[in-house]
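Quick one:
INPUT:
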């Protein structure tokens, strides 16, 4: 399997594919790959001539230095897992220097307000970091299609906005959330949970499912208050936010409208490990 650490070598390898208009599929990741990532990779392989997977823990999108330090780094295991999907996948695992060239800072973006909701409120600067690295990766790889998981639904909408506002010619494909048997959304951060915490964290998805049921007959405010109470009663979890929002604008739902698509979004700490999840409500 081809593994590139330097963008110059990757760019020259991809040049003939771009020149002959072959489709390049791209799966950006921060490693610690799970089945959700492997599904994105398999989807890309099925729909493109060549697939590139980046593995890069992007420092500029972490607002918490401890989270960055503890983020799992499992390159060898990741490469083995990708090989099992296909040995023809190309891996780009750059250093911070290769991406940032000595100035490890985010550019500042406007995503028309999407960046001020939910994750944006609690992780200042996070989406500038995501925008910066995703735009750089798109410039290097020049993909035809790029694949993102719906667990990070706000990120997916922000990447769509980035591409639209900067006229980047790439098709953004959102892929469904993969879940563990108990319903917990697959995430690289799950690796940091103990077996017991992993089991207990099934409460997150169970709560989202009940919230969805309740949303059929109750207001967004009533459902939100119910979720907040559920977590107040449970000392193993700290609820950071639960929001019901318009899927397109990500603006909090005050009064339901039949013409809008809504989603519930949640962020919860389990023993200092931050987990997020989302569910479509209608
Ligand atoms: O979702 C992620 O893993 C990251 O935010 C991404 C898109 C790879 C950018 O660093």
């Amino acid at each position: 399997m081809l593994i590139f650490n330097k963008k110059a070598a990757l760019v020259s390898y991809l040049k003939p594919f771009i020149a002959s208009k072959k489709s390049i599929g791209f799966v950006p990741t921060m490693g610690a790959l799970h089945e959700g990532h492997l599904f994105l990779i398999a989807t890309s392989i099925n729909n493109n001539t060549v697939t590139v997977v980046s593995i890069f823990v992007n420092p500029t999108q972490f607002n918490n230095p401890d989270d960055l330090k503890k983020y799992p780094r499992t390159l060898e295991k990741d490469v083995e897992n990708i090989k099992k999907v296909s040995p023809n996948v190309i891996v780009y695992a750059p250093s911070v220097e290769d991406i940032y060239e000595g100035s490890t800072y985010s550019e500042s973006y406007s995503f028309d307000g999407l960046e001020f909701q939910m994750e944006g409120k609690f992780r200042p600067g996070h989406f500038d970091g995501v925008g910066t690295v995703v735009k750089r990766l798109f410039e290097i790889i020049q993909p035809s299609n790029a694949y993102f998981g719906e667990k990070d639904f706000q990120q997916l909408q922000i990447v769509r906005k980035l591409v639209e506002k900067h006229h980047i010619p790439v098709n953004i494909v959102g892929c469904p959330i993969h879940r563990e048997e108990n319903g917990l959304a697959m995430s690289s951060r799950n690796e940091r949970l103990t077996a017991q915490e992993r089991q207990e964290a099934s409460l997150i998805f169970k709560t989202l499912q009940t919230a969805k049921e309740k949303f059929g007959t109750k207001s967004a405010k009533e459902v939100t208050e119910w979720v907040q109470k559920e977590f107040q009663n449970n000392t193993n979890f700290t609820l950071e936010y639960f929001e019901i929002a318009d899927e397109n604008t990500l603006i909090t739902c005050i009064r339901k409208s039949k013409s809008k698509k809504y989603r519930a979004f949640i962020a919860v700490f389990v023993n200092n490990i931050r987990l997020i999840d989302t569910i479509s409500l209608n």
